[in-house]
Specification:
single chain, 238 residues, alpha+beta, 4-stranded antiparallel beta sheet, 57% helix, 11% strand, DUF6904
Length: 238
C-alpha cells in the first residue's frame, strides 16, 4: 500500500510502498505528463515532476531506503492454512522535501486536467486515478501537520490555483533551501505558509519570477533553463 508520511524533523515526506506500488505510481506519472514536447509551456513543471519521479523509481529499485513492514499474517493464520511464511513484507521508500512535493502535487493537477480532456473514458483511466490518489495522499499528510483552519485555507488555495505554465521553477529551489535551513519548530510553523505561497503565486513569487525573466531574456533562454546559483547540502536531516 502506498503511504506518505511526515519525516521526523518535518523536513519533508517519506513516500513508501512495495515495488508494485512505487512502480505503478511512476508509470502513471509518465502517462499523465506525456512526452517532452507535448505541453511545452509546462516544461519547467515537467522537470520538477520528473525529479520526484526519478527518486520514486530509484526507491523502487532499492537504491534509497528499505524497510520491513508487518503484512497482517498472524501465527493463527499460518497454523490455519498449514504453511510457514514471513510476517513482514519488504517496502521501499524515499524522502522528498515539503516544498518539492507540494509543488509536484499542484503541478500534476494541471496535467490531470489536460490528460482528462484527451482521454476518451477518463472515469476508467487507471493512470488518472493513481495520480489523483497520490495527490490526495500528499494533502492528507499535510492535513496531519497543520491546524484545521490552516488546512481549509490550503485546500481553498489548491482548488483555486493558477496554472503552472511557464512557472519559475527556481522558486521551488529557493523554498527548498530556505526550508532545509530552518529548525524543526520553524518548519512546522512555516509549512502552511509555504503551501499557500506555492498555490497562490503571491507577490513574493511574482517578484522572484521577474528576476528570473531578467536573467533569461539577455541569454534568450526559456524561463525553466535558467539555473539558480545555490547548492543543496550533501546530507539533509529528514
Amino acid at each position: 500500500m502506498l503511504t506518505i508520511t511526515n519525516t521526523p524533523n518535518s523536513t519533508g515526506v517519506k513516500i513508501s510502498g512495495d515495488y508494485f506500488d512505487l512502480d505503478g505510481l511512476n508509470q502513471a506519472i509518465y502517462q499523465i505528463i506525456g512526452d517532452e514536447e507535448k505541453y511545452y509551456d509546462y516544461a519547467g513543471a515537467r522537470m520538477r515532476i520528473l525529479g520526484v519521479s526519478f527518486e520514486i523509481r530509484h526507491a523502487a529499485q532499492g537504491d534509497r531506503n528499505i524497510e520491513k513492514v508487518f503484512n497482517g499474517l498472524h501465527d493463527h493464520v499460518k497454523k490455519q492454512h498449514g504453511f510457514i511464511a514471513p510476517d513482514k513484507n519488504i517496502y521501499f521508500s524515499v524522502e522528498i522535501l515539503w516544498p518539492e512535493i507540494l509543488f509536484t502535487a499542484l503541478a500534476l493537477k494541471d496535467y490531470v486536467r489536460l490528460h482528462r480532456k484527451e482521454s476518451k473514458n477518463p472515469e476508467w483511466d487507471i493512470h488518472l486515478h493513481t495520480v489523483s490518489h497520490f495527490q490526495a495522499l500528499v494533502l492528507d499528510c499535510l492535513h496531519g501537520q497543520v491546524q484545521e483552519e490552516e488546512f481549509q485555507t490550503i485546500l481553498k488555495a489548491f482548488s483555486n490555483t493558477l496554472p503552472v505554465e511557464d512557472y519559475a521553477i527556481q522558486y521551488i529551489d529557493f523554498l527548498n533551501l530556505k526550508y532545509i535551513g530552518m529548525t524543526k519548530a520553524q518548519r512546522e510553523k512555516t509549512l502552511p505558509i509555504v503551501a499557500v505561497k506555492i498555490a497562490m503565486q503571491d507577490q513574493d513569487y511574482l517578484s522572484f519570477r521577474q528576476e528570473v525573466l531578467a536573467a533569461a531574456n539577455p541569454a534568450k533562454k526559456s524561463i525553466h533553463e535558467i539555473s539558480i546559483q545555490a547548492e543543496y547540502p550533501e546530507t539533509i536531516m529528514w
